[in-house]
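*** Backbone structure tokens ***
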Amino acid sequence: MRQKRMRTVTNFYIVNLAVADLLVTVCCSWVHLVDDLTEGWVLGAFFCKVNSFAQVVSLVASVFTLSLIAFDRFYGIVFALKAHMMERKAKGSLFCVWSCAIAVGCPILISRNLHVRVWLDHVERWCDDGWPIHSNTADPTSRRIYYTFVAIVLYVFPMLVMTFTYTIILWKLNSTAMPGETIEREVILQARMKRKVVIMLVSILFVFGICWLPYLISLLYSEYKSSDELSPWFYDLKFCAQYLADSNAALNPVIYVGFNENFRNGLRDTMRCMQKRNPEEIMMRRNNSAYQSTSVTNL
């Protein structure tokens, strides 16, 4: 973001999405690996709470950020004259995203605990939620309501809304140029750049949906089934779904770099920051990228 041309609303949202991905990498991925390779929970009470809390916060922050990106592109392309409304509210909206994400994750932070059971020959430790139990049916109603809320309201519904939004955006972009209409070269270039940006964002949304959907399905399935009813194949499925969800944090940077030349150039500059560089070559590359960028998207 040191380059002025990169300081756009969409780019700030993408950086926020990258922060959510980094949260998964730092607090979740390696914790799951250690848990799978060891017997019992060996990482203590702190990571017992932080691991699940960070995963919920990352999921909610990612969904809300993707929603903001969708609305930003919707206003920027469908209602171009109202695009500045989103720009003025960008910082406040990011604050709301993380506030809501932390609020949604707080029940996990409170209820998640390290449990210890002492046997004659060993000590058993495991990490699990300690939700209130319904007094009449002995059914973990509160826990089921919470995870259903996270899966349906904070994942399925936003994904449907964003899918509809990007469908309208793509339709608008494809219907802009009418047959026989004379369009200036700059306008054509802007339309192409907008289309590339939307394709990149749709790819991010698609990969996010594919990576997280199996995990949420397995989570809800285990919540509405007792442990005795779960088949052995379910644990293999949950294992794969967990790492597929974690892989989303690694796939997003590949999409950023693969779809956008400005990100590739910025990555090259960052990787060469400790080496001697040719100032004229760097300036020429930046000028070329700036020429290909538009004032609306500038990704």
